[in-house]
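Structure tokens please, single chain.
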Amino acid sequence: MRLRGHELDLALSEYRIEPRSTSVPPGPLLIVAHNRGMLTHNVELERGSLDSTERTVLATIHTLLPGASEAKRTPPLAPGRYLLVSTLDDQTTLGMSAMLIVR
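Here you go.
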């Protein structure tokens, strides 16, 4: 995991997103996801909470095969709490989520 200014590197593996929690300054963010696992994974940046049925998707990194990486720039992020989740199958319920705090 590297965090340089407005760039966030994520490591995806079986049912984990690393780092599990991190903070960044307000503004646009470049999310770089690396699939380090043996299964396919994706990542969505969402506004809302895990227990809410109403979450807003702000950015999506589509399905990554094992060993693949992809980068996605987000819109400007305001201070608050955001979720990083994998929406494939039941990966989110198996623990594949992380918290992003913008402050």
